[in-house]
Specification:
CATH class: Alpha Beta
Strand order of the largest sheet: 1-2-4-3-5-6-7-8
Largest sheet: 8 strands, mixed
Number of strands: 10
Shape: globular
Radius of gyration: 19 Å
Helix content: 25-40%
CATH architecture: 3-Layer(aba) Sandwich
Order of helices and strands: HEEEHEHEHEHHHHHEEEEH
CATH superfamily: Alpha/Beta hydrolase fold, catalytic domain
CATH topology: Rossmann fold
Distance between the termini: 20 Å
Amino acid sequence: MAEKFRPAAGLGNCHLQTVFSRFHRPKPWVRTHSRWLRTPDGDVIALHTPAKLHDDPARPLVLVLHGLEGSVNSPYAQGIMESLQQRNFQVAVMHFRGCGGIPNRLPRAYHSGDSDDPRWLAGVLQKELPNTPLMAVGYSLGGNVLLKWLGEDSQASPLRAAVSVSAPLDLHACSHRINRGLSRVYQRHLLASLRESLLRKSANEELARQLPDLEDASLFSNFRIFDDRFTAPLHGYRDVEDYYTRASSKPLLKRIASPTLIIHAVDDPFICPSAVPEPAECSPSVELEISKQGGHVGFVGGSLWRPVYWLEQRIPAFLERFRKH
């Protein structure tokens, strides 16, 4: 039985848990190679790997899906790459479209329900590495995408096992949570990052004509407005209500057939407690690891001077159980 999470002394506060790694691990330390893959609709997706991939049935490949405006350089991505490699897993980080500082080629971007891209990428990897077991780990937005993908595919999922961390499973509830109190600081930061990404994209005059007015400050005032005026119409949703309903993974948890671990902290400043699933809302294939503390993609244990990143122990331990059929 895996050891339960205990926050480091002095890091019990959810906001300290959430931001600590940004200061303790400010620079990426795992070198990776990037590969650009052309999507069926003519766009590009980047895949980052710290080592050449090999078709090896004894070394599963773990596909990592980052969070909103994250990348292979995010501390949690760096940490899990290092940890998985040490345990003889192969690992690859998929950049959602337009992430990592390089704009994509189409007007569309990425969003919380974007399960098509990792599904397509998994198919590419399966053809290239037909004997290699495929697993996945998703963080925050990437965790919701992963759970939605697992639920949609159910018995047909290509994933032998999966882990979702701090996922906004109910986007309606989470959009209200992040618009309250100190959580609005995170909302402002993320929306500012999204605006910078769109400004880089608008350097392409053809794409700029299909983007909203990026000088309109009201567009970036909160996520509900941004998603109603930008995310939803651009990606085929009627409005923000339709987007949040159809992109939320919580209603699909009962359909998941692959062994899946959901890790979540009740004090997550991004996510409303009502979004946390109960066992009855999940299939028998889903395990819940719910901690009272941990913040958002935090889970820093040990001590303030010698921090231990618990996720980097817990995630590989779960995946290890399914290395072999």
